[in-house]
Each structure stands twice: as C-alpha cells, then as structure tokens.
C-alpha cells in the first residue's frame, strides 16, 4: 500500500504530549479532526484496547499504536514526532519520540498486518529515522516519511 494513500499531510505533526495517554488522545483528536465522521473517543478506546494487550513501543524510540474501527472503509494514519521522548512501556524500556498510528477497518486484518510490517521496516531504516528526528516541522516530516 502506498503510504500517501493512508497518511495525509495534515495528519503529520511535531508535538510535546508529555505522556502515553496524552499522545494517544492527541492521535485520536487529530484523526477525528481530519475525518469528522469518526469519534475521537472511539479512536482513543480502540488504541487503548490494543495497548492493554501489550505496548506498541517497538524499541529505538518508535511506537506504532494501532487499532480497528467499524466506521472506516480504508486505513488511516498519523505520524507524530515528539520534541521530547515519552514513557511508552517500549520493549527496550527507552522513551518514544516517533509514533506512527494506524487505524484500519475491522474486517481488514491481513492488510492491517501488512501495513504495520512495512511501516516497522521503514522506521527501522537508520537514515530515515535520523532524518525524521532532525525534521523541524510537519511538512518536512511528511516529506521524509513518504519519500
């Protein structure tokens, strides 16, 4: 799947959320603002339900929070670069500063796994990660991740 089809420029931001809960709320609010048919509360609950199963912090300062919604037909994503790392219960116990959040339709399990896998692979590229961390604004962040 082409990343530009699920990640819109307006869904890319630099922020300082301060905590895991705050960043999940930020993700929920940004998605709901871009997709008015979605409820920020439903998005938040989907993300929290997944986090309760185990942290989506994959290490090296990266988290890929994700969830499923019945109210969408296509996957949607958010990319956030945190100005300061936040505790996210990552597998390496290190703070997270890059988050790629993904919501998929409830009936698209295979696509969900495929998209998560390709994003994890992209974020494991040291050059891309370095460029993301050096990005100064949302536009630059979007350009780096979609290049």
Beta-strand level of the residues, as a percent range?
A: 15-25%
Largest sheet: 6 strands, mixed
Count of individual domains: 1
Helix content: 40-55%
Structural class: alpha/beta
Q: Mind telling me the CATH superfamily name?
A: Mannitol-specific EII, Chain A
Count every beta strand, where a strand is a DSSP E run of 2 or more residues: 6
Computed over alpha carbons, the radius of gyration is 14 Å
Could you give the distance between the termini?
Answer: 14 Å
Q: Which fold name corresponds to the CATH topology?
A: Mannitol-specific EII, Chain A
Q: What's the level 1 CATH class?
A: Alpha Beta
Total helical segments: 6
CATH architecture identity:
3-Layer(aba) Sandwich
What is the general shape? globular
Order of helices and strands: HEHHEEEEEHHH
What does this structure look like?
This protein has 147 residues and is an alpha/beta fold. It has one domain (3-146): Mannitol-specific EII, Chain A (3-Layer(aba) Sandwich), CATH 3.40.930.10. Helices cover 45% and strands 23% of the residues. It contains six helices and six strands, in the order H-E-H-H-E-E-E-E-E-H-H-H. The chain has helices at 3-6, 20-34, 40-53, 109-123, 126-134, 138-146, and strands at 12-15, 57-59, 62-63, 66-69, 76-86, 96-105. Strands 1, 2, 3, 4, 5 and 6 form a six-stranded mixed sheet that branches. A hairpin with a 2-residue loop joins strand 2 (57-59) and strand 3 (62-63). Helix 2 packs across helix 3 (40-53) and helix 5 (126-134) runs antiparallel to helix 6 (138-146). The mean pLDDT is 90. This is PTS IIA-like nitrogen regulatory protein PtsN. InterPro entries: PTrfase/Anion_transptr, PTS_EIIA_type-2_dom, PTS_Nitro_regul, PTS_SugarTrans_NitroReg.
């Amino acid at each position: 799947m082409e990343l530009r089809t699920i990640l819109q420029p307006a869904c890319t931001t630099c922020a300082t959320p301060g905590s895991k809960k705050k960043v999940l709320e930020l993700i929920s609010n940004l998605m709901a603002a871009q997709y008015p048919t979605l409820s920020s509360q439903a998005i938040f609950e989907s993300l929290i339900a997944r986090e309760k199963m185990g942290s989506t912090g994959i290490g090296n300062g990266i988290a890929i929070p994700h969830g499923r919604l019945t109210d969408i037909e296509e996957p949607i994503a958010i990319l956030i670069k945190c100005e300061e790392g936040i505790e996210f219960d990552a597998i390496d116990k290190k703070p997270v500063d890059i988050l790629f959040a993904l919501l998929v339709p409830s009936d698209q399990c295979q696509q969900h796994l495929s998209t998560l896998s390709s994003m994890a692979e992209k974020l494991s590229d040291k050059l891309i990660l370095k460029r993301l961390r050096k990005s100064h604004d949302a536009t630059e962040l979007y350009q780096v991740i979609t290049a």
